[in-house]
Amino acid sequence: MPEGHRPRKSLGQHFLHDPGVVARIVAAIAPRPDDRMVEIGPGLGALTRPLLERLQHLQLVEIDRDLAARWRAEASAGLAISLHEADALAFDFGALGPDLRVVGNLPYNISTPLLFHLAECAGRLRDMHFMLQKEVVDRMAAAPDTPDYGRLSVMLQARFRVEKLFTVPPGAFTPPPKVDSAVVRLMPLSPEAIPYRDARRFAEIVARAFGQRRKTLRNTLKGLVEAEVFERLGIDPGRRGETLDVAEFAALANAGGD
Ligand code: SAM
What we know:
By secondary structure, the chain is of the alpha/beta class. It is built from ten helices and nine strands. α7 (199-211) crosses α10 (246-255).
């Protein structure tokens, strides 16, 4: 049992113990001393400590009261961290300043809403590196017309370059999760590369198109996109949402609703 802390299943606590995996993650992040970095869920510090060997300072967001108390004590003893005892889902990452680097071995039970939450402040971020359930990483990076492609793929790929780095087996953690994990890198696109004009309308179209995957766009986007717009853009309304790439979703969002 790691350092006297009983892992809390409800908080997705699977602690990394494989030094080889830790080294690969830290190498992928490639910290520079003056990076502005925040780690979500430091837990017992598997990533925190090697990161701190390379950084002047590190921000931590941890929800577990006992673990937060440990980090608070370490901060008082002089460790170069700022502890935010908080729920990452409600935390204002944008307030930590521009050019922020976000890292974490994330609690898998909240990974999708957390990614959506972080995407909202994409303009303030330099990059993000996360360990996640492999299946989620496959969905994040999926291409159109593949089984993994869905709302998560489109919403993230419209704001970030998504790069799956490597997979990690359950045995690298204590306790081992039931599924494989993977490490992913997200690099925000430059403002000029963001394909949509109205984020809200884009999100609504994507949500509707994937709400009923088997239905055609003519059905799922009824009332949102007129027949004449499909024709003008050369997008067949008989297609299903899962066949559209990010640029086509953006074209539909940009064509109407002004
Ligand atoms: N980074 C450590 C490691 O690699 O061993 C711990 C990873 S563990 C998978 C997830 C961590 O996120 C735990 O420390 C857990 O307490 C924390 N956590 C869970 N839900 C959270 C939330 N909503 N906000 C912030 N931290 C959370």
